[in-house]
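SAMPLE LOG
Freezer: B-3
Tube label: C17
Construct: single chain, 71 aa
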Amino acid sequence: MTFTATRFEITPTKASLGAVVTGVDASVVAQPEVILQLKQAWRDYHILIFKNQQLTDDQLLDLSTNKPQNS
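STRUCTURE (predicted):
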């Protein structure tokens, strides 16, 4: 399954680290361009916050390791 993101935002927090990611459903595999932007944001901000996401343990592992889901 591929998530088609036409628009998402990465907003830095007011703290010294972190950014909030909105417009991305973290429970599905994202397009390669989205993954590249998220990886760059992770390098820039060190902590990415995906609010209001409901993930299974497997989905969380897939997101953190950039692996496709087992479906």
